[in-house]
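Example record

The entry below shows one chain as it appears in the dataset: sequence first, then structure tokens.
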Amino acid sequence: MGDAGDYLSPVSSGRASQQIVDQIVALLRSGRLAPHDRLPSERQLAEAFGVSRVTVRDSLRTLEAQGLMSVRVGAGGGAFVTAPSNEVVGERLTDLLTLSPVDPDQVAEARLMMELGILDLVLARATEEDLEGLRDVCRLAEESLAGGAYDRTTAEEFHARLAEATHNGAVARLAGSFRGPLRMAALRAREPAADAHQRTVEDHQELVEAIARRDRDTARAVMGRHLTRGTTVELPEV
């Protein structure tokens, strides 16, 4: 970023901290600020915005909480632009859905639509390396199940690998960000049967082999069965 005066403008006294946040977010969205860029010093920012350094610090704390900034202290410190993690975005999505009038089945249906779209890309693009990675996750899941250590994170890893097999970074990031809402839906949905984990592992194994054969009909049927089990959601006709 160049001189602060090139991009920043003074803010009014009302809600000054939020106005600073809005200006910096606008710079991020326009591409004038990018990950790893360092912001001007607190003093320079305070002068550019016409506010106190305390107000600047409040704004930077807000941006840091949103996962957009990392504030480092000491030599070489300062405020640096960061890309928000899937966890941060997922937490905000979880809050949005938790506080909205949606039920677990609606979240499950949204996930089904997303995963079916992912599946079509995977069927077209998955490499042998991708398939072996998915099989590795399935083998690990079997071992975890046999040892009584299987939990939801094991299933999440499978779906994360599946999204990566689209070879589309945006899809992988969006899928990763949706993990939080999915956990929320699972906790609020009906209790699964005692053998739910076993069925999940079997579904994943069957899905991988259908993808390996490029068998879209079977892959969609398995994914639909897998994601609608325990819900009232139905796989849409195509």
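Notes for this example: The first strand starts at residue 69 and ends at 72. The beta strands are 69-72, 78-81.
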